[in-house]
Amino acid sequence: LEVVRSVEPRIADAIAKELNDQRESLKLIASENYASPAVLLAMGNWLSDKYAEGTIGRRFYAGCQNVDTVESVAVEHAKALFDAPYAYVQPHSGIDANLVAYWAILADRVEVPHLKKFEKRQINELTDAEWAELRQAFGNQRMLGMSLDAGGHLTHGFRPNISGKMFDQRSYGVDRSTGQIDYAALRETAREFKPLVIVGGYSAYPRKVNFATLREIADEVGATFMVDMAHFAGLVAGKVFTGDHSPFPHAHIVTTTTHKSLRGPRGGAVFAQPELSGQVDRGCPMVLGGPLAHVMAAKAIAFAEARQPSFQTYAQQIVTNSQALAEGLTKRGVQLVSGGTDNHLVLIDVHPFGLTGRQAEQALLDSGVVTNRNAIPQDPNGAWYTSGIRIGTPALTSRGLGVAEMDQIAELIHTVLAGTTPDATSKAKFHLDPAVADRVHKQAHELLAGFP
Length: 452
Ligand code: PLP
Known about the structure:
This protein is an alpha/beta fold. About 45% of the residues lie in helices and about 15% in strands.
């Protein structure tokens, strides 16, 4: 840090402060974790200085022998970890991984009139009319993905993301009474809508998904089946989600982030059946710039770590902790979406406390409990204020907290939610007795001191 400080002390201070904040607050954001020192060190080094556009052994730059080694080792571990026939580890993030996958699916599935004619020509030789023909063929394709309020992600065809502009999207959701995916309704929608692609996966759904059923539906309507396992990749890697509940081998194409439950560096990856691999390999330069060799090195370390038996114990403990947290909240009268959890996250409905998600999120933060607000099914407060709080256990499980601590955390969360009074004039303002916030902060601090 002193080297950084000699150039710009404010950056050194922010880094040091971030470490301190992460040590001292209850990190319950479901998409966050603590990467190992090996992952962090593999990322902060001279590989960062190298350009290596292209694929392993076929680069557009000279001198890529070390990047080739790094990418090959990352691919080797990734394939072994998920028992996948093909892996692409270049995507810089989850969004990028999804873009690579969408392009691969479009290129594989969409019949472009006279495509052969285009293939034989250099792209810069196409006339404007030919370009228009190409664009028309790729536009307006259909996607069926999970709705945002049921826990889907923006990249699954929603307007603020480019996927919502690339695809005509229809959503599937959850059954009102169970809070779980309504497979019969999903099948009906798929039959009627006939999507080119069905996307499984989520950011805020607390239950297992039956991927075998989704594949069956995709086959019935002739769709390509993609799973975005960004959130639960660690549970797949750790063999908690197996059989029908693993995307492998049911999905044609699987995308992930590497930094959530998988506990690697910030980044993405794509896995595919062999028939799609050629298109996925074109991710760079189709939608990606030069690969981040330093991050691929850190992905290789994270995949190797996840292949250790201890990672399976970790993944199981994530779910055990999540269920303990759900039970601790339920017994204190807190209402949970779907009544519980099968995975790493719990979704609290804060409506019964008279609060919006925004108020609850800030009240918890003021008390040293870091969570995020989230929409819940049929949310009356919309995507900005919301009525839910999403909490997840991957990070605290990495620190070694267990079932007993989850019950204490449930008590802290309940204390804050029950002690917060909404301001009648605003969906963002609230009152929380500072003495309560201080007490919870202190208790959270003491709890974490046992898990440095
Ligand atoms: N897909 C899902 C399901 C996610 O939850 C997220 C992140 O929140 C992403 C994709 C995007 O990942 P990134 O932030 O790395 O682009």
